[in-house]
Amino acid sequence: MHAYSGPFALADQDSYIAWRKQKLQTPPCPPFVTVDAEQGLDVAGRQAIAEHCRRHNFALFRFTEPPADPEEALRQLGRHFGLKDIDANLCAEDSGLTEITVKNTGTDNAYIPYTSRPIGWHTDGYYNPMHQQIRGMLLYCHQPAMEGGISGLMDHEIAYIRLRDQNPEWIRALMAEDAFTIPPNVEGGVQIRPATVGPVFSVDDDGHLHMRYSARQRNVEWKDDALTQEAAAALLALFENDDPFILEWSLQAGEGLISNNILHRRTGFMDSPDPKQKRVFYRARYHNRVRPNATVIIEE
Ligand SMILES: [Fe+2]
């Protein structure tokens, strides 16, 4: 393990206490930042999103009206924060953004995001190899469901605080290189993704906390020792608490979230019988975090 100092080092309790105090004094939810649907994000909006991401690891935005070309509008938005490095997952559309809607054909059926079923607490790309972790994520509501489909959000740094306050040894267990394993993905006898073994909490070279997590009980393997098992149970229990830092948002058309891949979930939903009215979200994943001072590079 690296010899970290700073708030995420168990040995550096002073840094932790100072950082924790400031973190818990910040109101749990930042206000929505308005994005002009035609002009894009202005300087004040850029500063606000960067500041919200710095303090909360996420920012909420709302277009003045849902853009006619959401994919282009979202790409532009992401570029303000250096978010260009999009993860090519199994179902990504060519544009690099993934449209998330109920799909009834082909292999999509096997993936819960493309159904109306609930998705439990997780961070994106927890099954990715350790050198391709997802540190940034953008989620956008083009059209909400007729009923349900509510997003739950929790800053992963708050999860860290809740666990460390209960038992710092749980943090040590969750930072072990073999704490959490996702078995290989095998379809039709062919391995399409190898097993991923890694920590739940890790600290990037630049000192930021990263979390790799899924609350699912099947197809995940926790290290078989008492502390890791206790820590996994404590994480699950966290989401059952009435914690003011667990936020619920029913995103409306034109609203979205830009984040450092915080913990999130989705409740199940019911679509309108009219196929033109069904729930449509867009999601983009990035290998880097939200960069507050990124300059926009015009790519023509
Ligand atoms: Fe997700």
Detailed description of the structure:
The chain has 300 residues and is an alpha+beta fold. It has a single domain (16-286), classed as Clavaminate synthase-like (Double-stranded beta-helix), CATH 3.60.130.10. 23% of the residues lie in helices and 24% in strands. The chain is built from six helices and 19 strands. The chain has helices at residues 13-25, 43-56, 70-79, 156-166, 168-174, 226-238, and strands spanning 33-35, 58-63, 98-100, 119-122, 136-143, 147-148, 151-154, 180-182, 185-187, 190-193, 196-198, 201-203, 209-211, 221-222, 247-249, 255-259, 263-266, 269-270, 280-286. It has a six-stranded mixed β-sheet with strand order 1-2-16-5-19-3. Strands 4-17-7-15 form a four-stranded antiparallel β-sheet. The termini are far apart. Fe (ii) ion binds at residues 122, 124, 264.
